[in-house]
Structure formats: C-alpha cells, structure tokens
Design goal:
The chain is α/β, with parallel strands linked by helices. The chain has helices spanning about 15-25, 40-50, 65-75, 95-100, 100-115, 115-120, 175-195, 235-250, 275-285; strands at about 30, 55, 80-90, 135-140, 150-160, 165-175.
Length: about 300
Amino acid sequence: MLCSPPASQIGAEVSPSTLFAVASILEGCAYINGSPQNTFVPGAVELAVQRRVFIGGDDFKSGQTKIKSVLVDFLVGAGLKPTSIVSYNHLGNNDGMNLSAPQQFRSKEISKSNVVDDMVKSNPVLYRPDEKPDHCVVIKYVPYVGDSKRAMDEYISEIMMGGTNTIAMHNTCEDSLLASPLILDLVILTELCQRISFCTESQPEFQGFHSVLSILSYLCKAPLVPEGTPIVNALFKQRACIENTMRACLGLPPQNHMLLEHKMQRSSQCSKPGVTDAVSKKLSALSNGHVQNGLVKLHGH
C-alpha cells in the first residue's frame, strides 16, 4: 500500500482553518466556517461525511451581502434587469487587515460576488444563458475607522424602453456587533439539527441531515451545500427553508403563503366552522405535491 507524503513535505499549502476543521471533525464536533477562506477542501468534506459530523459555511452574512441578496431578488422578480453592481467597503479591524492580503481578498471577492448568481439564473427572460451583471467588489483597509465598517453600493438596472434605473446606498455598521449574533444563531441551529431525524415516503427509514448542513445558508454569504445540490442565495427562500423545517418538527404543513381559502369567490363560506380546516387540508396536500382534482383550475382568456 502506497502512502502519500504529508502536504508539508511536498511544499503544498494547507490553510490553518482547514487544520482546525479536520481536528474538529476528528473529535466529532461540528465546524462552522465564518470566513471566506477555502477551508472545506474535498478531503475535509469527505472526512465529515464519513464521520457523520456537521460542517457549515462559508463566510458570515451580516450586512452588505445580506442587503444585496434581498435587493437583487426584488429587482429581478420585478422584471428590472440589474446590469451593473459595484460594492465598495473600507474597515479597520482585524478582518480588514487580513483582507488586505491578495489571496484573502480574492476569496472574499468570490463569496460576495456569487450571491446574485442563482437569482439571475431564475429569470431566463431577462438574462440569456451565461449572461450576468457586471459585478465589482472593492475592500480597503483603513485602520482609523476600526470596527465601524463603511459600505457603499451602486445598482444599475435596465428598465422599459431602454431606460436605466440607479440605486445608490451607503451603510455604516459595527462589523463585530452584526457578526456576533450570527455566531449564536449558527451554534443554536446546528445543535438543534443534531437532534432531528426524519424520513420520507421514498426513504422510510429515519435519518439525520446530510453532514454538509445547507440549512445554515441563511446566515452565510457563500452557502456550502452537498455535491449536486442547487445553491440558493435568495434570502427569503433561505429563511423559508428554516421556518418550514421548524414547522415540520411540530407536525405542521409547510407555509406556502397562498391563503387560497381567503381568495375564493364565496370566501364568506370559509368562515363557517370546519370549512377553513377542510380547505387547509386540501392546500396542505397540494403543497406536498398531491394535486386535488377541482381544487385549482387554470382558465384561458
């Protein structure tokens, strides 16, 4: 049996965060990566899956990127075509100092830029295949401002009859005070997921979540997902995933926001006892993929 020499002996670079992640996995302790470094290399992910230990990341989503994931989702959903997105930051804490290194900045640039990709792909009417907005991210280290980060954004969108719409934003935020609650939320949610098991009709045996805990995407800029899984960056979809998971734990159907029982022509009947419950059950079946004959009809013009 041939064994490869350690990476340190062949000159390969292993990041300290990867070493911490591997050590945590070997101890059976979940590891959440709150920075943009390339921590979860394929070997680390494979080890976590083998050991059935949760890993999650990457890069806490606390300010500018969270706003971007909401605003771009709104613009694309409203039929406005973002064509240029420019984001500028300067800060003076340790995060800013570390990001002044070219390699560190490149990983941050990628995690901040990829946040719009799935929202662009969701609207093939606005964007041709492989088309995406010009997206520029700039981060500068300014020691004087300390933890009080400045973020400025400009969004230019194409609108009707060749017009353009420009949105400019300025945000001043305390970087650590925004990130600290995310750490608490990530730890609490990860611990809760360790106590959840579930089954489906196709797989009736109870099992836990995949080791790559994609439910944490709501709190991370560059969501880590199992191989072959679609990446979702739209903030409200990420939140809905957590909400519906919690509802499932309570035996409640997923929330689909249709409220169809209140949109019927004879909606007054829905106020009678038993009618609302009956409609809700039908809607629950519909949301779970079981279409009831006569519940929803599409009428042509």
